[in-house]
Amino acid sequence: MSIVSEFFCLPSRPTFSSTLNSFFDTPGLSLQAQVGVGFQREEKEGEKTDGSIVGWQVRYTQKFFNSDMEVFHNQTVYQNLEGRENVVAITETGVCYEFTDDIYFNIQLNYDVDSEPAVGANKENLTLQFGAGIEF
Fold it and tell me: Listing from the earlier edge strand, what are the strands of the sheet with 124-134?
């Protein structure tokens, strides 16, 4: 797990951790989960702090309509155990549809929370994204 968060108005937030993985993977369905503990160095308001964290990640994808449409959900949540004992949650949920082998469209909802955000940052952020692409 490695997160550098300009989104939360922090100059840096590198995270290093060891994890236990659980995988379920077929051509049309994938579920991955990680649980782990780690170390984080964070700079907030000019002050650097080090601490340990515990967290998890979940990644889910499922394909429909001969694999032309894919539904996905990604979630990362971690809790600082020392210093600033905040909780951070980052989620992405969406659908990607391939019109042809080379043209696709996606819609994605992102929801992010930091229980103790940096000065000037929102505690919660909700974003709806639309995208389209062409593969060469």
Answer: 15-25, 29-44, 47-64, 69-80, 87-98, 103-114, 124-134
